[in-house]
What does this fold into?
Amino acid sequence: MNLKELSTLLGLSQTTVSRALNGYPEVSELTREKVLKAAKKHNYTPNSRARGLATGQNHAVGHVIPLSTEHEVVNPVFTDFVAGASEIYARENYDMILSIVPDSNESEAYRKIAAKGSVDGVIVHGPKANDPRIALLQDIGMPFVVHGRSGSATEDDYCWVDMNNTRAFERATQFLIDLGHRRIGLLNGLESMDFAAKRRIGYRAALEAVGIKEDQALCYSSEMTEEYGFKATTEMLALRDPPTALLASSIIVGFGVRRALDTAGLKIGKDVSLIVHDDDLSYLRNGSTEPIYTATRSSVRMAGRICAEMLMEQISNPRRPLRHTLLDAELIIGHTTGPAPKR
It folds into this structure.
């Protein structure tokens, strides 16, 4: 049964039936009960297009994904984020629309989405420092939530969900220092991205706190792939004074680190210690009963759920105060760290 048939059966307009089903206050309780009872009896499922005509909303959320040869958004972690967000979309009967665009056309993509009116709000991924997309969406007037942050100056001006990247990597570096390590390599993500820039700040702060000078030969920044982890680690191991510990921005990079150590005949956790960042991926667990890798852990799937919930709130009540959620990462002790080896 469609909306028109249900409306005819009840002798009500389609708008009234749709508003009754969606809980609008102007519909009387008597009418609402009548509509809900008939909908249940006849197994009526709301049609999103018809519902949009009645409510002025599309019940759809947009994700604009920049297509680039080097970009942190286009990676396996995004799948788990979307899985978390989709739990909320399904609960609220929202559709998700993905738009894949070249980096150079990303701003234009947001303008087209707004002009078409195809979505009620968007989630912004991979923010950079002073990201222009934030000002653009504020100017357009479209509800949005940022997964991450874009610098500190304007953080109160928009909704965001982020992990405390600075604290996580400061704590991880300090853990390695406490184990006696002084040559600590960093395999970071792209430092044009806000999360990676904050991780570098945390790493540097821990070193400076104990008087260790940051060595540029031990600091790498690139797209977080297994191959990057392998190549960067191989290069650092060839140094005259190689690192005794490594800190990687992704468990995926950590796989490459492990391959490089195996190739060099070095034992992880004994000859070289390793800490990775673990997004708690549903398809790539860091051990089943106990962690394999020592890691900073923060669930990206949970971040997806929180972002989606915040966006739903904004869409339903645009005047609601802006919310900000800063998630702390756990430091999980696995089998990849140990005391610094004597040289």
